[in-house]
Structures are given as structure tokens and as C-alpha cells.
Queue: 3 jobs
Job 1
Amino acid sequence: MKVQAKKLIMWDTKDLIKQVSQHRKLNIVINTPHGKLLLPAEFDINIFLPHRMAAYLFVFVIKGSSQHYIDLEEITVKESSALFVLPHQIHRIHRDWSQVGNWFKLAFDHECMSLLPQSYDFLLNPLNTPVVNLTEEDQTRIIPTLQSIAQILNTENTDTASILLAHLNTLLSELNYCYFRNNNTNRNRNGMLSIYLDFRKLIEQRLRQQPSIRLIARELSISENKLYKVVRYFSGVSPKVYVIQQTILEAQRIFFYQPIAAKEVAYILGFTDPDYFSRLFKKNTGKTISQFVKEVQNLSGKHVD
């Protein structure tokens, strides 16, 4: 089966973070309603097009609300909450920002993340929500940190990288705490959360290799039965179904971003039988690949031959 070779109007953000970076050594940018960020001329138009993220994006809504689409799912970010969007996810901002009264947008790339002193488990989104709710107490710590980052980025001094990274580490540590705060007692029982996080990390690394559940359990040094209980507890599905869901999601991202034949996508994702891949795609999405591609063309507004 071959997908019609029409190129979707997608915004290529690959080099955007470098273009708008406010620091000479780190690729990082922050903006507010009253910020003086200089953006490319096409930004105001392209920002509403679907785009595959090339950087980490955090949207903090202090007052009002905001709507986004992440991997085709509509997400509402309510007052006193933060949204995180990860590299490779398909993101689109809703056109109406009139309800957003006060906000911060922060973005930085993989290289910047690699310079931080630790990893942040919430970025694996084990609780299946890209929104972090913030209490008033949380905001009394987080808002000054964001303001400090903005202040540093608005100075001409280039010897601020270590200070900037320290603030960024504080911010992400706060978000990590807030994300897990109400779930640590019930969900981390007997190390289950740690196992689930390791499982998700492994799936991300091996997704295109179609790893067997037996191999995954062996690499995690647990039994298949234990793996089933852990994954079922957090995701509501079996490990096999979870892997299939993530594989189909990656296929949707590829179709969303590239005019490519279904057969080629099947091989990219480790399938040896393209017909089986097509049937699996329809079973999991309720749509044929052709129907899905047509819908995302409509979502992007238009297409070109």
C-alpha cells in the first residue's frame, strides 16, 4: 500500500532554537506576554502549523488557559499549570490565545539538557499527562526562577552558562516533584515506578527493533509476569499492547511529517510484513493509513503536490 505522495505543510523547526536563542553558548529561549524576544518574520504565521518538535518546550500558564495539540491529542492547559512538549512530538498551538492572561514559554535543546546534572523522570510522562498542576506555594518558587532565567537571558554577559544551568536544574527539579507529588505513596510501591520508567526508557531506545516482551523482561532483570503487573498497573494495558501503541504512535508521527509510502514506514519500524503493519495500524487507530494521511493534511490546512 502506498501513501499518496503529497507533502504536508509542516513547519520545520529543526534550526529554530538556534535562530531565536538568547544565549551565545546555550540554545535556550524564554518569552512572556511582555517580552522583547525577536522572532523570525514567518514565526507568527508558522506557529499555528503542526510541527515536529526539535527542542523541549515548557508552557507555564499563570492566569487564563491555553489549548494545544500534542500527537493529535487536544490538551487544555488551565490556570496554574505547566505543559511540557518533548522533542519529536507533533505539536500545534490553538489559534485563540485571548484567554491566556499571564504565561512563560521556555525552550531549550538536547545539548542544553545534556549539561544538566541529573535526569528528570517526569519527562518520560509515566502518568500519561503532559500537564503539571502547580499550587500557589509551587508558583512562589517557580515564577521567581523563571523570572531569573529571563533576566539572565536579557543580559549581555556571556559568562552566565553555569548560573543559567543551575536555575534550569532547579526549575526541572520543581516540576519533577510536582508531577509525582500526589502519586509517590500509592504508585511507587515496591519500586514499581522505577521498573516502569526503565521499561519506557528501553522501549524508546528499541522501538524500531520490535523487541520481544521476553527480551525486555530479561534486560530489566525481572520476570515476564512481574513486567506485566507493573505495566498494566501504570498504563492499563499489557506490555505487548503498550509496545504496539507506541509503535503506531511513532508511525503516525512519521506519516504526519513526511510523504512516505506505508511499506517504507513498516520497514523503518521493524516490520517484515507491510500488510500486517497496515492491518495493525487500522486496528489501533480505526482508520486506514490513507484515511489518516488525508485527515492530517486537512489538519495542516492545506497541502502541495
Job 2
Amino acid sequence: MSKNKKILNNTLALYIRLLVTVVLNLYSTRILLNNLGVEDFGLYGTIAGVIALISFFQAALSNATNRFLNIEMGKGTTSYIQKIFSTAFFLHILIALFFCILIEIFGAYIIGSFVKLPAEKINISMQVFHLSIISLFILVITIPFESILMAKEKFGIYALISILDVTLKLILAYILIFFTHDKLLYYALGFVCIVFLTRLTYVIYSQLNIVEARIKFYIDNDFLKKIINFIGWELYLNFCVVFKVEGIMLLMNNFFGLIAVASIKISYQINAALYSLSSNLSVAVKPQLMRSYADNDVDRMNMLTFYSAKYSYYFMLIFCAPIIFNIDYILKFWLGSPPDYTKVITIFVLISSLIEVIFYPIVMLIHATGNLKKFSILTGTLILLSVPLVYVLFKFGFNYYYAYIIYVINTALASFLNLWIVKKLITDFDLSQFLRNVLVNIMITTGAIILALKVIAEFVVLRGFVGFLTIFVLETLVVISLIYGLGIEKTHKKLIKSYLKSKIK
């Protein structure tokens, strides 16, 4: 199978996964919000936020393991990959133990001192907190098994496990209706069980089907030094990213209450679903992008970076644009009575993700180099500064939405900083082509789409669900048409026409 065809098949598997998981996740959120209530839903989001704030190491471990397995998979022997996989696995166990103990010690202090909670909810909050740490431990120690599945490009299996995960979570949300009290506690307990079952599936599949994932009681000291150095720089960067997201949420909790947190969690649900639309392409491209860098295949490296950046953005925009223009109706239809602040926060978070998705392939390239010092210090510190800035604004009486204006501006500044860093690290990276063929193209196409949708919103007014559906479909078709006309290159248009003709015949 050719490399490009493999990317296409992997992307298809990930989009099938996406279709199922998005529908189930969004429906689960509605059921969970109804069964827990806005306050408990917001409370769970707050506890999860505290855990995420301290568990920034999880993403660092995942990125490090992904990077080294992807780079070595193309050139290392099976026995050597087994050694580095085993080394990574034992390292994950040690780091998970260290940080989970740390979270147990300091997390309770953070919840007691910095989180605004109703007095009657403090006891159950601590129980949920302890259960969440167990879930975190299971997730961390199984990161290498998920990473090797991705490095081997077993995206079909990855999709099936993801579908199992969201199906079980939907069942859990429904089961809560049978409990009359302590629903949040039972939800947290059920969540731990689901995490255990799904992550165990990764382990069993990898052990039975991937030779490189067989555990050897061996530590490769040279690899250990490399991955610890990588993780060290990633830790600071990921702390800054998590601090931005969860720190702003905790500030919203302190200044605007649990309803604000519930609004944020709902907006993150929508964003996660839509971000997956674009990130699926990047995830499918990632193994080959990293290997093209390792093989010094500059042309393919640039090509994969440019096209994954541009088309990932357009995939997301196809759905984001109509949703943003119809957000009021969608939230009311989905949730009945959405919490305050949800509409505005959702729009800002989606805009931030649209910016982020363009530059995600740039971050993958920086990871491929393994040289993270400049990336971590400069980008991480810039991201970190957003939280104290939001705190100052809130102290001076600024409204809640200023937090997410800062959120968007910070994302844009960090993204352009990463563009400068990757050019410094990889001199063969074609910056001028990225600016011209990706960014300028995206700005022109997006401007035309915004103008067209504003015209539709102004002159086409239909009522009820059928009216909404008609407008949403019309807007989606307009977005697709403008992307096809302005955003897609001629050579790719020919490929699309050829593909459609072959399917019609």
C-alpha cells in the first residue's frame, strides 16, 4: 500500500470513529447534565480541572513516547524497539506513581484553599478527587500501549476502542437515573471502571498483535537519557498549556461560580468534537511526517506539513462556521436550558481551536527534531502569562468574556512564535510557501465564507426545526463550495473529480 493511500485509509478510519464518538459524546453530555444537574456537572468539571492542572505531565509523556516510537519505527530493529518500549513503560509507571502521590498531597490543599465549593459538597468532592487520581494513574501507565498502536498506524483498532469508550460512558450517564443520591460519586466510580476496561483493551491487543510491544525487563540507559531530556522540556510546556486552560476555568469558578464552569465544560465538549474533525487528518499524517523528517525527505516533510495544516483547518471550518452562526438554536435544542455564558465561551474556544489546528503540524515538526528547549521556554512562558493577565482583568471588574478574548489572542501569538521557532530549527522548512499557500489562502477563503454567511443570516429567516435544518444545510453547502473554489489547489480538484467519477461509475 502506498504511503498516501495509507494516510487516506487511516483518515477514513478516524472519521468513522469521529462520527460515532461525536454523536454519543454530545448525547451523553445532555443526559449527564440532566441526571447530575448543573451544579454537580460544574462540580465534576472543577475537580477534573484541578486534576488536569496538576497532571500536566500526562501530555508530556504521551508526546515523548509518540515521538520516539515514530522516529525509531522506521529505522530500528524489532529487538531495539522492544527495549525502548519497555524502558518507556517502566518510566511511565515510576512517573505515574510520583505525580499521583504528589497530586494526593497538594490537590486536596488546592481544592480546600482555591476552589469555591458549597459546604455540603466538600466531602463528596474529595471522594471524587481520589477516584479521579486512580483514573489518571491507569491512563498514564498505559500511554506506551496507545502510542505504539498509533506508531504502527493501527487506526482501525484505535477507532474501535474509542467507540467502546464513549458507548460505555453513555450507558453510565443513563444508569445514573436509578440512583437517588450521591449520583456524582457513582459517576466517578463508573468512570474509573470504564477507564480500566478500555485501557486494558489497548494492553491486551498490543501484547497479542504487536511484537514490538512485548515487555522486556530491560532498561536502555541511552534511550532513557534521551526521553527524560525530551520529557523535561515537555513538562514545562504542558504545564503552561494546562495552566492556561484550567487556570482560567478556576478563575471563572472563583469570580462567576459553578454555573460558569458548567458553561466552560459544555463549550469544551463542543470544541473537542469539532477539533477531532481536523485533528484526525493530522493524527493520520503524524507518523509519516516524523519519519520524513528522520529520513531527511524535505520535500515530503514540507508537503505533509502544508496540506495537513490547510485541509485540517478547512475540515473543521465546514462545521464550525454554520455552528457559530446558529449557536443559540443549537444550544437550546441540545441542552434545553443551557447554562449562562455557554454561547460566548463556545464561540471564542472554537475560534481559538481554528487557529491552533493550522499550526499543529508545525508543533509536530518541532517534536520531530527532539530539540524542545527554545520551544518550551518561549512558547510555554507566553502561554503561561495569559492566566495572571485574566486575573488582573477580573480584579478590575472586567466581564467574563474578556478571559476568552485573551485566550484567543494568546493562542494566535503562541502559534506564530512556533512558526519562527520551527524555521530556526529546520532551515529547509519552506516558511514563505507556508505563509503564501496556507495562511494567505485561509484568510481569503475564511473572509469570503464569513461574508456569505452574514448575507444568509440577514436575508434568509426560517422558523422551527425544519427552518434551522434548511439554513444549516444551506450554510454548510456554501462553506464547502467556497472552500472548493478558493481553498483547494487545482491538482487536488482534479483528484477529487477523478475520485468522484470512479465512484459514480
Job 3
Amino acid sequence: MRKNILFISKLFLSICLLGTASCEMRDELRHRMPGNTDKEAIGGFSLDLLSKEIGSRAGNVVDSYVIQIVNANDEVVREYDSYAELQGGENVIELPVGTYKVRSASYAGGEEEASINKPYYFSEKEFSVNAGEVTSLKDTCKLNSVVVNVNYDDSFLDEVEDDYAVTFTNGTGVLTMNRDVNGIAYFRTSPTMLIAVRATTKNGTEVYKAQIMSSKDGTSLKPEDKFEINLGIKDTIPANPGIPDNPNNPNDPDNPDDPNGPDTPNNPGSPDDPDNPGLGGNGHFDITIDVTLNGKDVDITIPAPDQPTPDPDPTPDPDPTPEPDPSYAAPTIVGDGFSLSQILTDPTTVRVNITAEAGIQSLVVTIDSPILSDELLGAVGLDKSFDLANPGKNETALKELGLLGNDPVSGRTSQVFDVSGFMSILSQLGDPGPHKFHLKVVDKKNRQESKTLSIQFTI
């Protein structure tokens, strides 16, 4: 009986100690929050982080991942330069009761639009903190980028000079690979991408090709999508086609089976002569671009050369001889520091000033470029023709590209058309142009002015 009483006493004491420890944990969480006396206001959080990234860095790759904890208002309440820093501190992160998100990423500053050998692994997970309790969360970061890997066929490397350039864009970021810059490319996701290849063959022929890359079903590209690209080059005109094989000596001008003799300076063989096309020559080399997405062949679109674009402005042409209104000056379109009658070469800053004292009714811009095709512009949500005063579905893209501010253009008496942000992308896409922006402004008195901004690059 005495033993039973002793056992029950020990059991009761253990329960009390456990209860005291639990109370102490809640009290500790409460008292660590300065000025807080409500024991229901504080809880804890712990993170067990994993990643699908493998083989690129030694050791535990997640140790260098950056960690952010944000509250319901998307405000950062805790931030750690690395997961190792978080793990090196206290095991439990104290937080006020509420709903949070933990963001883990392979590098700080958010995903870059385009990078080489710099994958972006990311995860965002929501969790709740309850009073006096510790929320334990296990999370795994996954690749958040579109992957592009380029392979060069022997025909390409053997045939072209070392000055070749392979340029990619997702519509906002641009990345160029060449002999000295190569590796695995990573891009922020986008509806489609563009590849542009420029090279010079060993016989001096300049070759260029651009293609749109997209998913086979037309859906937007997704994180972890991987493009494998194989580049080659071929001569579209075979050597001396149509000349029969000569079992004798084809280079002997006296050979009766070869009455024309060999090609000489007076008989060089010309691609312009259908009876004697010769050896390929300028303009007969073609770059081949074979593309697979996630191991499957995909349809590719070659941007077509721009055709003359009809005036998209739905505003009917005003009376060609409107009544003059002395109270308002006619609209004007003037280059900022340059004349629109000239072609700008290799510019970095390009602004055009538009005025309309009677107020802008419409300001239509039509893009006319050999590389800025419907498909490429569509990748960033932009039509080739748009009205800055009535942007409609183009509004979001125009704002993201910096072509439109938050204030409406309609009714304004002046507007700056600034395409400086386009210059870096255009210059790297490999097509010298000219790239034209046709501008047409109509004021509230139905008077109009039209000018064209022309830009070209030295490639």
C-alpha cells in the first residue's frame, strides 16, 4: 500500500512538472514580446526547408537560401540573409498571433528576368501562429524559371566565324550567348520567347534567323519548362547542282565531256544564273534551329517581315480643311534634341514631345519593325498598334513597359513618348532595323499631326 501511494505521488508530481513546463513556455513566449501582457498574443514558428536543386553547389544548398516572413499585409516582419542564419539562432521564431507567409529563395532581390547559370528556386507557403503554440512547417523550394540550353552542331561551329551571337528574350529580359558567354540560361516565365541568331560564315556571308518559341498547345510557359535548342547551318544551294559527274577529268578544259571548262573569273558560276548556280554564295546559307520543350518537338514561328500596316486609328479623318481656331495651336510632334526627319543610329535615350493645346483626343502609335513581330509583342501583352489616349486591353503592358503613366492621356495638352527602355532590347536582338514608330495625334478639334520615329543599330 505504501508503494502504491509513493507511485501515485511521483506520477502526480510529474504531471505538475509537465504542466509547469508548458505554462513556462507560454509565459516565455509572452514575456519576450515587449509591452505585451496578453498571454494569447504570442506564438512560435519553426521551418524545415528543402530544395529540388541538386548538383550545382556543394553541401546543403538551402543553407544559403534567403528567408522572408511577411504578414497578412505583405509587410516583412522577419528576414534572414540565409537559412543557415535562421537555423543558427533560436529554433523557434516568435511571432504575434496571426496569418503569415514564409518565402524562401535561392538568391535575394527577386527573380532576374534573364540570367546564365543562376537558377531561381522559390517557395511561398502560408501558415498560422496560435497563442502559446509552435507551428512547425516543412517546405520545399522548386525551380521557378524557364530553362534554355543551347547545343551547337559541328556544321555550325565549323562554318561560322567566332563572332556569332545567340540572343533570347522573354519580352522584358534579354540575354546574349556567344563564344565567350555560354551556359544554362534561366528566364522568368512568359507566354512565349524569342531566339535570334546572327553569324558570319567563313566565306563572308552574313546569316540571321529569328524564331518564336512557345508551348505546343499555345499555353503560357511555366516554371521548370526546359527548351533544348540545337543550332546548325546549311548551304541551301548544293555545290554545282545540275552538272553531271565526269568520270574523266572535270577540271580539264580540253575534255569534251566538259565543254564549258572549269569556273574561271570569266565564268565564276553565279547564284543569280539558274543554269550555272555555282557554290551557294551570299544569301544561300540558312541557320537551322531545332527546338524541343520538355523533350518534345514544338512548333516554331518565324516572325514574318512587316507589311505596310493600315491606319488602325478608328477616329475618322477630320475635314481636310477644318475651320481655323485661333484660340488653340495645331498639334505638334517634335523629337527631343533630334529631328524626326533623320534616322537615329544606336541611341540610348529617345523621347518625342507631343503637344495639342485643344487637348489630346487620340494618340496612336504603330510599331513597324522587322523583329518586333505580332508574336513577340503579344508575348508582353501589346498590340502592334495602340492608342495611348484610349489604351484598352494594352493598358497593363503599356504601364509595365513605361510607355504609359497612371494619369490619363486623353484631354492632356502635352505628352512625352519615351521609348528609351526599348533601346537595350532592340539593340541586342540582332536586327539592325530600321525600327519605326509611326505617331499620329488628333486633338479635340479633330486636327491631326503625323510623324515617324526611325531607329537603327550598328550590328
